[in-house]
Amino acid sequence: MKKAGKEEIKTFIKERLAELLNIDPQSIDENAFLVEDLGTTSIMIVDLLVAVEEEYGVDMQSRFDLVEPVSVNLVTDRILENMEA
């Protein structure tokens, strides 16, 4: 499992989201909800979670109820929780 700090993880998530959404990573608000505010689809979220699992070696899909609002900060917190578990 790769260890990383909170800012590094946020940057990784924002870069992956930016690729999926074809936008500038700097334009992504860390508190914005991925579906409601950024317009990601469920497939994009699954792609993001798979990228996180590959990069950090953590099981992310079991850490989310995909009907709950999800933000960059929430994903980051769940990664860190999983790394500590």
From TrEMBL:
Entry superkingdom: Bacteria
Domain Carrier: 7-83
Annotated organism of origin: Lentihominibacter faecis
InterPro entries in alphabetical order: ACP-like_sf (IPR036736), PP-bd_ACP (IPR009081)
Pfam families listed in its UniProt record: PP-binding
Protein name: Carrier domain-containing protein
Coiled coil: none
PROSITE patterns on file: CARRIER (PS50075)
